[in-house]
Amino acid sequence: MKPIDKKIFLASKSPRRRELLRQIGVEFELLMLRNDTPRGPDVTEIVLPGEDPLAYVARVATEKAAFAWGIVQSRRLPPRPVLAADTTVTLDGDILGKPASKDEAIAMLTRLSGRTHQVLTSIAVHHTSMAETVTQVSQVRFATLSEASIKAYCATQEPYDKAGGYGIQGLAALFVEHIDGSHSGIMGLPLYETACLLRKAGVPLA
Fold first, then answer.
1. What pTM was computed for the model?
2. Domain coordinates in residue numbering, the chain
């Protein structure tokens, strides 16, 4: 068993990121950022004017990690590394976020059908004097999807908390013809890059 001071703080609500960290043996405590404070969310995920997808996803992950590190300091928590991440899907230079409705999810998947899109995941680690962010980019090609299959998928709960309106670890795996990149990155946490940053922060990994 790892000593308690080798744990990290995970600033993410994503159950997929928790599963992936457990897969590589990283112990963590959750450090949740808030979305509903009187002043708004702790970190906004609104795209800034003129912001391209790479800049956007890196900024959001960096701001999440920095805010969470500030919580560690203000609450005088153990100075463990803080990990945050953000994932977005992009097609034709457009950022496809989490669909807010069934119609929006159907429209997103219709755009992705038969085409190759990019999944960008940025991971950020803050720890004492270390503050680093890395972005992993994967290419994902969808098969041509029928209207019926899109509507059936959008009748499930899967599309609505995921960038691009799908989760590769779920039923949408049936849509994917080809991947060039990181399967774990498409899920929301590229494990190779994550391990590299955590090692730099002093977390012992195999």
1. 0.91
2. 4-200
